Fold these 2 entries.
Entry 1:
Amino acid sequence: MMNIHAHTPNLELTARARRVAAVATSHADSVDRDGRFPAEAVEAMRTERLMGVQIPTAFGGEGASTAEIAEICSILGQACSSSAMVFAMHQIKVSSLVTHGGDDAWHQGFMARVAGEQLLLGSATTEGGIGGNMRNSICAIEVDGDTCRLEKNATVISYGDQADAILITSRSHADAAASDQVLTVFLKDQYTLEKTHVWDALGMRGTCSDGYVFKGEAPAVQILPRPFAEIAAQSMLAHAHILWSAVWYGIAADAFAKAQAFVRAAARKSPDMTPPGALRVAEASSLLQGVKASIVAALEMYEAARENEDKLSSMSFSVAMNNLKIASSQTILTIINHCMLICGILAYKNGTPFSLGRHLRDAHSAQLMISNDRILGNTSNMLLIHKQDTSLLG
Amino acid sequence: MSAVEAIRSIVAKHGKLPVDVATLQDDADLYAAGLSSFASVQLMLAIEEHFDIEFPEDRLNRKTFSSIKAIAEVVTELSEDQQAA
Ligand SMILES: Cc1cc2nc3c(=O)[nH]c(=O)nc-3n(C[C@H](O)[C@H](O)[C@H](O)COP(=O)(O)OP(=O)(O)OC[C@H]3O[C@@H](n4cnc5c(N)ncnc54)[C@H](O)[C@@H]3O)c2cc1C
């Protein structure tokens, strides 16, 4: 089903995103080289009031659609992948608050604070001994009267040092099964983080995805009122796979723009001879369009399903969202590699107008960010019973 | 053997629950008892085979497998429908 609203660009919002992108671009190389937090870009996001855009107007936000958030992710992804991924991860956390915290006084008040104070939200699902299997936890939250306490070996928390609050998964009580989980908001002054690993990685260096031992104590009302199983299925899965893909699309689109500019410059110098890279530009163009189309289709599917819990927790929806993540995470590598072949040594070297080393390194994170093998394993299991819709228009 | 008993023994065999199924009420939340989405597929396959039914697309969701009672209701409904068809 077409949803017109999902795709009418919000020009005012994209203009704000472009101003942030300009800041992010100018610091992208130093963020990458030094593996430092993109402080300037995140400051610009705050100046442009982008942290709370997804929050309903009733709580001080702008009620931006998932498509509008995805467009911002793509614009930022074309500037600095780390800044874009920080923004995407923050918005994925916001989506869980918006979708599952709207009826609950504490979480309503917290949304108003996120919008009003432009708070940055971090995420701690990954756990030592569990890896990316985020639908399982070892650690358990302890509820003691009105207070809850949690200690977690959180092996990856992006921008843990800079986050104003962390949304963290755990088992719902000491005797709960590994999959019986809750998600809790802890504010910065309610936890300590003891660093266990420093993020010195191949790419996405500015996400500063350090490892920590998290220890928190907070009022128990900060536990989200719905089981994490529902949160994961109904808001996290779609938002994570769509917004990540939008960031990845942005990285590939920027690489493509460079490769196309390279070939056009060659063509203008000798208009009678088609440059050797031209054919590869055409190939990359087709692949890039495929990624874009998959994201747009997923946005439409999500808009059509989002008011319907049964649809959101159906296998067809999970399979489709998983397929988006697999396809976009793999295809961007092929696209950027094509672009590297087109621009040659100028792409391979740092510091040229056609440098693509950072793009390629950043893009390699996509397959590991919840391992593709793990996701394919889940999808293959579902496909034992779910019959994929083979019609064209559904 | 009633449908509920058959479902109980299939849950015991394929649900990979960390608790003894005999201790669960018919309406106990299987996800809270530790049913993973992975194991729920194994469960569905075993139930399809045992009752010779096929779960239609709109039943392939968490709700169908939320409790032994919920499974039994869907199985009864599908057995009637699919035998009538
Ligand atoms: C840039 C970036 C930022 C991140 N930020 C955060 C964050 O803020 N918060 C957070 O919680 N996490 C974060 N993560 C972690 C991420 O989302 C994954 O959870 C984590 O990378 C998985 O770690 P792993 O590869 O060690 O674990 P695993 O998922 O356990 O995978 C390890 C290996 O085992 C294989 N494997 C394991 N299980 C299976 C299976 N069932 N089927 C098939 N193969 C399997 C996989 O192929 C994989 O190579 C971030 C990751 C990246 C790259």
Note: The mean pLDDT of chain B is 88.
Entry 2:
Amino acid sequence: MIPSTLAYTKASSIDEAVAAVAAGAVPLSGGQSLMPMMRLRLAAPEAIVDLGGIPELVGICEDENEIAVGAMTIHREVAASELIRAHAGLVADAAAGIGSPQVRNRGTIGGSLGHADPHSDMPATLIAAGASVLVRGPNGERRILVEDLITTYLTTTLEPGEIITQVRIPKGDDHSAYAKFHRRAIDWTIVGVAICIGDDGVRAAATGVADRPVRLSAFEEVLNGGGSLDDAIARIAEGVEPHAGLDGSVEYKKHLLGVLARQAHAEASSR
Amino acid sequence: MTMGQTITVTVNGTVHTAEVEHRTLLVHFLREQLNMTGTHIGCDTSTCGCCTVHLDGDAVLSCSTLAVQCDGREVRTVEGLQAADGSLHPIQQAFHENHGLQCGFCTPGMMMAALGIIEQQPNATDDEIRAALEGNLCRCTGYQNIVASIRAAADQMARS
Ligand SMILES: Cc1cc2nc3c(=O)[nH]c(=O)nc-3n(C[C@H](O)[C@H](O)[C@H](O)COP(=O)(O)OP(=O)(O)OC[C@H]3O[C@@H](n4cnc5c(N)ncnc54)[C@H](O)[C@@H]3O)c2cc1C
Ligand code: FES
Ligand code: FES
């Protein structure tokens, strides 16, 4: 039993979901983060609205410039998508590496972003891929770069009443990779580095080295200015603020950044 | 505001209509309302896999799914593995023959995860079976015989 009482509704359209969220309900997607949080009493929403009954939130399609991934698309589908693999292989790889098959059968791309855990793999890979989200709220629809979505632990720039409806990933040749380090199979990532090498240069982002996913700006600057990978790695930790914790010291995490950047860069270059 | 509702869930082929509180997790619905205690609870963090059941054919954690989310859907639990005549499912038979359990606490989840693995990857190698078992913890066996059991069950199911 979830410790506190709870009112549940299932929305059958985005408008219905937005109305419920605007009235104070918390959106429920795959429940793979929200349910454990409720069981541990870290979250105690009075009302939740299930997004699981809205067909238009599920599925992956494309237009000329972008891939559109519905917010309720599960990690298993993202991992298996040839379309995503063709244009942003690192996003498919990250999805394939999340939790266990059971978690990937329920957990969603929209939930991963809405949850805003600094150790979650999806945000950094989507930042490196230059992705945005479409969000819907009481005042209509707007677009937010994933890079501008997450501000600190479990906190986003979504306004009250807004939900993520779609993730938009730019199309292009895929030279991308995500390298992460964790101790045991389903443990969360300690540090991860996502790299995309595109026509407009290198874009890189990291998981686990701040209170939110971060762009690795100094690293990018060196590479995009024609510098060597060694020089870029020497500056990779500039501007990042890892926290010391049970999963490692600040020095250790900065060290991991360099090791993983080398791995991800080699893999991205070879794709 | 209502805090509960009537749901209709098909569990192992039998249709159940029941009143549930909204906060009732699927695992508690199965164990405490339907008295089907085959599905186990091993953690509070969605990490042990003991509670694995199939929801509309996919292996999921019943501790991270609300009973109301299963309204109108099909659930299969470990009790639903054996045939109507009581004969063991190939997965149960293989765990029996290969000593795939010791205390048995993790076993219902292991077998339901095994079913998902065999359905998704019928030709999985031992390494792929190990990787796909990442969400199921066993404190007794060291996994060796669990992998052997799943291998044997996959081979048997491919033959039949
Ligand atoms: C054992 C285990 C291991 C895991 N390992 C990893 C891992 O290695 N890497 C990783 O990245 N993740 C991991 N996860 C988390 C997993 O990816 C979750 O699926 C994800 O964090 C949340 O997605 P969800 O769909 O389950 O969201 P939910 O749990 O339903 O929701 C999470 C939060 O996001 C909000 N939310 C949900 N949908 C929306 C929306 N559309 N718009 C706005 N807000 C929304 C909810 O209100 C809630 O606050 C793991 C989870 C478990 C249980
Ligand atoms: S009880 Fe541990 S994962 Fe469900
Ligand atoms: S047999 Fe005892 S926990 Fe697996």
Note: Chain A has three domains: 7-50, 64-170, 176-270.
